[in-house]
Amino acid sequence: MSKGEDTRQFIIEKAAFLYNQKGIAGTSISDIMEATDLAKGGIYRRFESKEEITLEVFDFLAKRLFDSINTAIKDRVTATDKLMALLDHYYDRLVMAKQGGCPLLNFGVEADDTDPLLRTG
What we know:
Elements: H1 3-22, H2 29-36, H3 40-44, H4 50-73, H5 79-92, H6 103-113, H7 116-120
Helix pairs in contact: 1-2, 1-4, 4-5
């Protein structure tokens, strides 16, 4: 990845953590600036808007969850084994509750309640 792509990914990852802690509506560009130690221009050089960051964060979190589930069940043969691996996967993720809970569930709640872009996207 180029330096610009690395920075873009860094912003997405920091914003993902903030969104999970504070919610989408509760996270400002200033919060993202503080977490990334970037100026506003550094953020907006890579994203046109907070909405673009939000959609990229959702894609990042969805891919991360999809990949971790696939890894958990890939060597399982029977449906029962796959289901048990999936349940174990989510049980192990309970640790995330201290970090704001399941990021995708949080996105779903906020999209349904306050964010029309995510609701329609």
